Amino acid sequence: MPSSDPLKVDLRSLIRDVPDFPKPGILFRDITPLLGNGPAFRSCIQQMCARLSPFKPQAIAGIESRGFIFGATMAVELGIGFVPIRKPGKLPWKTRQERYALEYGTDAIEIHEDAVTNGTRVALVDDLLATGGTAGAAIKLLQGLGGQVVVAGFVIELGFLHGRENLLGVPTEVLISYP
User: Fold this and answer.
1) Catalytic residue among 42, 51, 66, 96
2) Rounded Cα–Cα distance for residues 61 and 139 (Å)
3) Catalytic: 66?
4) Active-site pick, 64, 77, 103, 113
5) Angle at 30 between CA 26 and CA 36, to 5 degrees
6) What are the chain's domains?
7) pTM of the model
């Protein structure tokens, strides 16, 4: 890596553009080169933790599937719990579900009914903020359980899709923005 400071690593250079995935007209921002580069992945986690820790979260909620990669790692780094938010039918306990729209269809996510307690300060984490449909649904689920979503953090934001508008006023931190 060109920089010895982990907070100064150029993460954008490790994001690969994949045209027409998952369907024609979509330009997919692929994080797998970033994940495959140990020093850069570590820097990414450190940068995300530095952005989210001032909000004093007590838990990190990660959205399936890439939000698990970043969220669980950040939870370990910060010494707090991790809350998985998954696709329907994947959680083994009683769940709540929220449907949402995304840029190429519709879907739903679920959370365990006992995932957070009333007043728990939660940081929501995912790899990408696009339309904000998934993250907005996750915020509704967490708030519906009594959680206080204090910040949402993303590695990448596709600003032209205006996803922040669907985050219900939750402060948002992003490492890489594509206007």
Assistant:
1) 66
2) 9
3) yes
4) 103
5) 170
6) 55-178 (3.40.50.2020)
7) 0.93
Per-residue pLDDT of the chain (179 residues; tens, 9 = 90+): 344 565 678 999 999 999 999 889 889 999 999 999 999 999 999 999 999 999 999 999 999 999 999 999 999 999 999 999 999 999 999 999 999 876 666 899 999 999 999 999 999 999 999 989 999 999 999 999 999 999 999 999 999 999 999 999 999 999 999 99
Helix (H, G, I), strand (E, B) or coil at 92: coil
Cβ atoms < 10 Å from Cβ of 76: 12
Tokens of 72: 């669980």
Q: Within a 13 Å sphere around the CA of 116, how many CA atoms are in the beta-carbon half?
A: 33
To the query of whether residue 103 is one of the catalytic residues in this protein, the response is: yes
Q: In angstroms, what is the C-alpha Rg of the chain? A: 16
Q: Which stretches within the chain are classed as H helix?
A: 32-35, 38-52, 66-78, 133-144
Torsions phi, psi for 163 (to 5 deg): -65, -30
